[in-house]
């Protein structure tokens, strides 16, 4: 009888905890476990044990594990939104997009597991929608037409996500594997035969020492330069049309 009462009490506590669950609390704990485990293979059973509930309780809030992981990914994008909301309203397009890129980079360093596994996913979540809207509105406000706005949105976003994913994929490796790859430039390339690989041999020290953040910044600056060329072309075309209209009005005979 005492055993039955104990079992009933435990079930009651578990049911109470399950009833108190919220999407936010589940997402927060899932993010914590993902970063601790260094893998995106989230165990729903482990999550349940950590939160003191049966794993089936999570399916009241999320369709499946993938749905939960996407919600966690959207939460991380929310961290980026919090930073971007603090930018001055009159910040220029280039400075705004650069701030977006560097904010994504710092968040990727903080959450390498999620970035390495989810960078190519589309969540459709609230924070992702706000990020997409922010980039599109920043570009369209420069005068680009809709086709070029979308083109350069994708160029910017894909370069940003690809750069972050490259870095986080390395950070997600086991430490000994990461060290092996990091030293390959000095262990292998810096000592290649001079006759066969003169360029690699000559640049071995620099290849080993270049900073990943500098690479990302340079890549994003190149993308912004290309967008800037397109924007200047649009603005120059507008100035040409304005000049033509001014000349046309000046040449038109005055009406009595």
Write the layout of secondary structure elements.
Elements: H1 2-20, H2 23-37, H3 44-51, H4 65-84, H5 93-110, H6 112-118, H7 126-140, H8 146-171, H9 175-182, H10 184-187, H11 198-202, H12 204-209, H13 212-251
Structure description:
The chain has 256 residues and is mainly alpha-helical. The chain is 75% helix and 0% strand. α5 packs parallel to α8 (146-171), α5 (93-110) runs antiparallel to α13 (212-251) and α7 crosses α8. It starts with a helix and ends in a 5-residue tail after the last helix.
Descriptive labels:
256 residues, mainly alpha, 13 helices
Tally of DSSP β-strands: 0
Low-confidence stretches: 6-12
Structural class designation = mainly alpha
Query: Roughly how many Å is the radius of gyration?
Result: 26 Å
Overall 3D shape:
flat
Short synopsis of the structure:
This protein is mainly α and 256 residues long. The protein is 75% helix and 0% strand.
